[in-house]
Amino acid sequence: MRVLITAGPTYEPLDPVRFIGNHSTGKMGYALAETFAAEGAEVVLISGPTNLPDPTSPTIRTVRVQTADEMYRAAAAEAAATDVWVFAAAVADYKPAHVAENKIKKAGDTLVLELVKNVDIAAELGKTKRPGQFSVGFALETENEQAHALGKLQRKNFDLVVLNSLRDAGAGFRHDTNKITLLEADGQVTIFDLKSKAEVARDIVRAVLARLPHPHA
Q: pTM higher than 0.85 for the full model?
């Protein structure tokens, strides 16, 4: 079994010094990579900028990227040859329309930035998904959580969505723990307690393996 995982944030440059990013640490995606590898999978881990070392498992290949465009190109190059896709990265929705060649100097009391929409990696790859391939998305929500997560599942051709709520203490960015709800295309909902991200990764991997069309090692 071959697994593609995206992890961490993306950094969208404003100038040579500054970027637009987010607080994702990559811990959830890296834990998933290690857990899939422990189940015998070959894993391609496409990671945005993180402070985490590359996983040491010999069956995990780590590809480092910075921007959403780089992450999309790297994922698209691997997608056709993989059986399971896990989109755990927190990809920036927007990027600056223009990247300044030199550091933007302070001038005036306000600075107006024009942002343009980034490629939606999961949605674009979802259009190419073949029968037998299994796609897992993540939804980090703050309101109407399940409705937004189910909308994402349908829009991006996911088989399973992992929902995090920022309203749950100890869940989301910058934590070593997470609290998830799994939502499936058939409407099934499974709610888990707050656990370490390593334990959450095991719950997710078990759920994926149980739902694959064919048994895998």
A: yes
